[in-house]
């Protein structure tokens, strides 16, 4: 994925002092009327629209389609900030429903943008959009645009659409990357700006990534951009956030606040905290000035702005899940501290379903955070659950899509190693799963628990397939690590589409544990057997002869292809028991199972990953590869 460095610019990355100081001779570029937001329309066509156009045509736009998934998220937060500010709300569920059912819910945004259009000029001489007029370094030099264009790899530009780099940008492209830089820019040492008291020797040392860089981004996606904006329009009051009484700064987006200077916003050694979602979504983590020559942007002046700090960020930031941090609780001497829950780029979103759904085991009648839960769902999910439970809200077909987006940083957060972009389509019924005193068994609890159990079933099935590949490698004297990892990747790939389809249909099942879960276990078993057959068929004669090898959990064992096959089938039967019709002589659940007959070459019977063992059924023998 895209990799971007921070620190010194490569040769040729600097611009002339005259250009950097004067900013060139660019004509005004009004973001409210000029097209700069790339979108996919509901009819399948692509277009580029202005800020005014995106709100006017939101019902006919499917979604934003920026240069990167993280750019989509940054632009969505920008649109939400404008919408919150133009509507001055919503303040309650009733206000939100009025917007949802309104013929034109975004009508107030158009006069709002007109009133503030002077702050949306990308090249305004005094108040350029998301920039600082006259910003300069001590050497009056500007950096190459690679500093803000995140799809330019660090080093050799292999597999890049911008080779050798981003030499110039159109104003529309530059505006998108400008918004992205405030949200996802890397950390590292940056140039010190003239007038920034934090600069030492012309440098400012690492102050962290952009405002959304630490998030494991989660937001809802509707059938159109109109629905997407409304579904993520979370009232501040529903997040449990209360701004500090010591900070008199209003909750307003950056374009309604006084222009920034070259340094951070803190005065007198203090810190400024976000006052609400409008402030948060447009937080100026960087100080930037675009350098333009005629109709092209040719360079950028980039430094640190305001580090994002909040007393209890989990009560304000709605677009990420949270994990409890005992380490931070000790460090900050607080009873509860939650940190953003990051996405794992190696895991599909459905495999992290537990992080997306509300907890199914919260004590009755209390807020999750008051009980010190290990994990909290995102504020967006909590808001949608509130709509589903208290207001009986049901989107089209009763389905909800949650999109996950995030950046994975490396080398002290000075580069972007990978980006995460995935989504899960699930019945909104699954959000109604939190027990309370009035509703100890909410309608969606059993469905949610079944969905989470199905994820574990998938993990166990894939683990069995990986163990098969590893044991076959041991049988021929090879390292099991590579074959195990490859087989697991194949296993999750084979289950990806079937699980998503199964999850989407879960809401239509009356008894999920008795109907849907056996069906899923059957699918998982069938897919693992399908992938296991070629592994056994291509193992070769050496694997049939076998050898003694160290097997995790079992010590020294004799392993050949026959033993590996038996262990594989037994693991599938033990972990996916409802996928195989029970035999008449099967022991009741929970009782001791008879062991497999020990091979004559094996010193003991217990399998490597399931020492208890169990006998193979006739169905297992017939289905063996």
From TrEMBL:
Residues 16-26 have a biased composition (Low complexity). CDD domains: Cse1_I-E (cd09729). It comes from Streptomyces spiramenti. InterPro entries: CRISPR-assoc_prot_Cse1. It comes from the Bacteria. This is Type I-E CRISPR-associated protein Cse1/CasA. Residues 1-26, 578-625 are annotated as: Disordered. It holds the Pfam family CRISPR_Cse1.
